[in-house]
Write a structure and sequence with these properties.
Layout lengths: L2 H14 L32 H5 L3 H4 L3 H13 L1 H22 L5 E12 L1 H4 L5 E17 L4 H68 L4 H36 L35 H22 L4 E12 L11 E10 L7 H67 L5 H35 L12
Antiparallel strand pairs: 1-2, 2-3, 3-4
Helix pairs in contact: 4-7, 5-7, 7-8, 7-9, 7-11, 8-11, 9-10, 10-11
C-alpha cells in the first residue's frame, strides 16, 4: 500500500471523526439587575448601547495636552503591555489546542545497523545487518467522535477571547486613570496657586497691621491673629507643593515615559471632556457591552465548554497511528520495486474502572461553570452599581456647583466688607479674619467641586464602556 493508501485512510478517518459536542447548550443568563438605573432626576435621552461604546476617547477628551498623555500611556504603559502579551499567549495556547483536531504528519528517515556475535548468529560467523527506511506517518491521532478535543478547543478559544476583552477593559481603565491623574494634578496646581495668593495677601495684611501696632492703633492680639492665617496659608503652600510633585510622579508611572515639558502645566479643570457626547437615560442593557462583562461571560462560556470535555471522558477514545513508505537493506534499494512498507495501528481505550475519577472531574467542571456564572452575575451587579453611583453624582453636581459658586461670591463680598469695616475702625480684626477664612475655604471647596464634576464625566465614560468599540483601534 503506497502513500495514497495512507492519505485515503487519513481522509476516511477525518470523516469518521466528525463529532457532536457533549457540552451543554449555552444560553446567556438573564442580567440580575433592573432594566433601568434608579431615577436621578436627570433628563432622559433616547439612545442605544452603541451610542456609548462608539465614542472614541479622542472625541470625548478634547484637551489636546491630555490627548497626548493618553496616547503616550497607550504606547508605553507596562501594565497594558503585560496584558497585551497575555493575549498573545492565550492566542498561541488556543492554536496549540486546536491543532489536536487535525492529524500531525511526520516524515521520518532512518538507518539501523546491528552486529550479531558469531556464537549466537547460528552461522559461526559474526553477522552485521543494516536496514534503511523512509516513511510518512500519523502518530497517535485521536479520532474525536465524542467532541472531547473540540470542547477543549472551544474552551481555549473562549479563554483567548476573554483575554481580548480584558485587554480592552484595561485600555479603557488606563485612559480613565490618565485623565483622572491629569485632572487631579490640575486641581492641586490650582489649590497651590490659591494658597500662594492667600499667603501673599495675608503677609501684606500682617505687614500693615504691624505698622498699625507700632502706631498704637492696633493690638498685639490682632497681629497674632493674622499670623495664624499667614502660617496656615504657608502650611498649605508646602502641602500642595508636595502634592503636585506626587501627582506628576503618578502620571509618570501611568504614562510609562518621561512627561513632555509642555504638558506639565494642565490647562485647567474646565473644557477637558465633551459632556454633551455622553448621553443619560441609558438602559442597563448597555452593561452587556462593557469589556469586563464580556470577558466574564467568555469565561462562563469556557467553563461550559469544559463540561463537554469532562462528559466525553466517559466514552471510548480511539487513536490512530499509521505510516507508509519504503524500506530496504541497502540505500540503493529504497525506491526500487517491491520496497513499499506500511503500518496501521488503531487503538481503543474504554474506561472501565477509575475509582470515580471521571465522575469527580465532571462534578469539578460543573462546579467551575456555576462559579463562573456567579462571577458573571456579580460583575454585572458591580457594573450596575458603578453606573448608578456615577449617575447619582452627576444628577446633583450641577446644583452643588452652582451653590458653591454663589457661596464663594458671598464669602468674597463678606471678606471685602469686613476688611473695610476693620480699616475704618468699626469692627475688630477678628471679624475680618473669620471672613477671610470663610472665603479661602469656599475657594478650596469650589476647586474640589470642579474636580468632582470633571472626574465624574471621566468615571461615566469608563463605567459605561465608552470607547470599547472605538474605531481608532486603541479604545
Amino acid at each position: 500500500m503506497k502513500l495514497r493508501t495512507l492519505s485515503l485512510g487519513v481522509a476516511l478517518s477525518g470523516l469518521l471523526s466528525a463529532c457532536v459536542s457533549l457540552a451543554p447548550d449555552y444560553q446567556r443568563p438573564a442580567a440580575p439587575v433592573a432594566a433601568q438605573w434608579p431615577a436621578t432626576g436627570g433628563q432622559a435621552v433616547a439612545t442605544t448601547a452603541a451610542d456609548v461604546t462608539a465614542i472614541a476617547w479622542r472625541d470625548y477628551f478634547v484637551d489636546e495636552r491630555l490627548r497626548r498623555l493618553i496616547g503616550l500611556a497607550l504606547d508605553n504603559n507596562r501594565d497594558l503591555r503585560a496584558t497585551a502579551l497575555a493575549v498573545v499567549r492565550a492566542r498561541a495556547q488556543y492554536r496549540i489546542q486546536r491543532a489536536d483536531l487535525f492529524p500531525a504528519l511526520n516524515a521520518e528517515a532512518g538507518t539501523t545497523a546491528r552486529r550479531t556475535p558469531a556464537d549466537v548468529s547460528g552461522t559461526g560467523h559474526a553477522v552485521t545487518s543494516r536496514s534503511h527506511s523512509v516513511d510518512l506517518g500519523v502518530a497517535s491521532w485521536e479520532l474525536d467522535f465524542f467532541g472531547r478535543i473540540q470542547s477543549l478547543s472551544e474552551q481555549a478559544l473562549q479563554t483567548y477571547l476573554a483575554d481580548e476583552e480584558s485587554l480592552r477593559s484595561t485600555r479603557i481603565a488606563l485612559v480613565a486613570d490618565v485623565a483622572t491623574a491629569y485632572l487631579t494634578l490640575s486641581s492641586d496646581e490650582t489649590l497651590l496657586a490659591l494658597a500662594q495668593r492667600t499667603l501673599a495677601s495675608q503677609e501684606a495684611s500682617l505687614a500693615l497691621i504691624g505698622k498699625r501696632v507700632d502706631l498704637g492703633i492696633a493690638s498685639e492680639l490682632e497681629r497674632r491673629q493674622i499670623e495664624t492665617s499667614v502660617e496656615t496659608a504657608r502650611r498649605d503652600v508646602a502641602t500642595y507643593t508636595a502634592q503636585v510633585v506626587t501627582d506628576r510622579n503618578a502620571l509618570n508611572v501611568l504614562v510609562g515615559a518621561p512627561l513632555p515639558d509642555d504638558v506639565l502645566q494642565p490647562a485647567g479643570l474646565d473644557g477637558v471632556t465633551d459632556p454633551a457626547g455622553l448621553p443619560v437615560g441609558l438602559p442597563s442593557a448597555v452593561l452587556q457591552q462593557r469589556p469586563d462583562v464580556l470577558a466574564s461571560e467568555r469565561q462562563l462560556m469556557a467553563a461550559n465548554a469544559n463540561i463537554g470535555a469532562a462528559r466525553a471522558a466517559f466514552f471510548p477514545r480511539i487513536g490512530l497511528t499509521a505510516s507508509a513508505g519504503t524500506a530496504s537493506s541497502s540505500l540503493s534499494g529504497l525506491f526500487a520495486g517491491g520496497s513499499g512498507a506500511w503500518t496501521f495501528s488503531p487503538q481503543l481505550s474504554l474506561p472501565i474502572f477509575n475509582a470515580g475519577s471521571n465522575r469527580a472531574a465532571l462534578q469539578v467542571a460543573e462546579a467551575d461553570r456555576d462559579i463562573a456564572l456567579a462571577r458573571y452575575e456579580q460583575t454585572i451587579q458591580t457594573a450596575f452599581r458603578e453606573v448608578a453611583d456615577a449617575l447619582a453624582q452627576r444628577a446633583t453636581l450641577d446644583a452643588r456647583l452652582g451653590a458653591q459658586l454663589r457661596l464663594t461670591e458671598a464669602s468674597a463680598a463678606s471678606y471685602r466688607l469686613s476688611e473695610a469695616r476693620y480699616l475704618k475702625g468699626v469692627d475688630s480684626y477678628l471679624s475680618a479674619l473669620d471672613a477671610q477664612r470663610s472665603y479661602y475655604s469656599a475657594q478650596q471647596g469650589l476647586v474640589s467641586l470642579r474636580l468632582a464634576v470633571a472626574t465624574n464625566a471621566v468615571t461615566l465614560y469608563k463605567v459605561l464602556g465608552g470607547g470599547a468599540q472605538a474605531p481608532d483601534g486603541r479604545g
